[in-house]
Amino acid sequence: ELKNRVMMSAIGTHESVKSEADKGYDKLIVYHVARAKGGNGLNMGEVTAVDKASAHFGFLFIAEDKYIRLKKLNDIVHDAGDKTCIQLLQGGLAIDLD
User: CA neighbours within 13 Å on the CB side: how many for 81?
Assistant: First the structure.
């Protein structure tokens, strides 16, 4: 259940890929918490790759267990009173395979 019908669509921040360290994700969390406090009912995360071929284009990436830290983003945004979802990407023929 959402608190209202306001939804923030997926916006590419590139904060998630500036660093493999948590500081990149921390900036992404701050960004989404600010939107949650601003009155959104649903925050959609930026495009998120589901395969390794798409990962090197600078998207969020969920094809490996080390990216479980997205749960931290989800939990903190929930604590701020908002819901989250992600936009999935499987690039198909648009992605150059190694």
Answer: 11
Buried b / exposed e over 57-95, threshold 16 CB at 10 Å, is eebbbbeeeebeebeebbebbeebebbbebeebebeeeb
For residues 78-97, give the mean pLDDT: 77
- Nearest CA to 45 among 59, 57, 56, 24? 59
Which among 8, 26, 13, 17 is positioned nearest to 60, based on CA atoms? 17
pLDDT (mean) for 68-79: 85
pTM greater than the 0.85 cutoff: no
Torsion of CA 61, 66, 70, 76, to 10 degrees: -160
Look at the chain and count its residues.
98
